[in-house]
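Example 203.
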Amino acid sequence: LPEIIAEGAVILRRFALDRAERLLGVIGEVTELAPLRRMKTPGGHAMSVAMSCCGEQGWVTDTRGYRYQSDDPLSGRPWPSMRDVFRTLAREAASAAGYEGFCPDACLINRYEPGAKMGLHQDRDEHDFKQPIVSVTLGLSQVFQFGGLRRNERPVNIPLHHGDVVVWGGPARLRYHGVLTLKAGDHPLTGPCRYNLTFRRAR
Ligand code: MD3
Ligand code: FE
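Predicted structure in complex with fe (iii) ion:
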């Protein structure tokens, strides 16, 4: 049953569980073409999260800033295409949360290893904030921080587990969020890591 965590934000616990192994297989296929890498922030520090992308647009960061682009900066080639299992999952989850017709053009693949985290931020590099975001957790559990529309609002901690899908739209779309440091663990399908797939409409 959908769990509403705020207006516009819905957790679909274990929604992706039955397709988790297929999703992980596709992550393997995509990251063979576009390897996971720790990108640099505009401040010049390497992120602790390793990232790759698939779809028409990929999210990148370097010392020039954050943006979407159609080519992988490592290879200079277009990002691997959006895979059907990815697109279908994102569409079905959005629909289950009340957002019909979601058609992502970007999937960011985040890999967290023990010690990796993502500080509080807003997702605001997309053109249309009326489009929702769908995120999928695979492997180890990690605590998600769900804040307010202003950075100074104290976030709520929400543990996310293997197969959980979260849909963020409407008034929740620009909320601050992050994830706490991943603790060491061993998951039968992913070993020492958590993967997060984040589906967005960039353009
Ligand atoms: C809440 N990733 O890649 S996904 C990111 O677990 C990112 O890898 C985290 O934040 C992760 O930008 C969290 C969940 C998420 C994504 C977008 C949101 C939560 C959101 C947008 C608004 C509010
Ligand atoms: Fe984010």
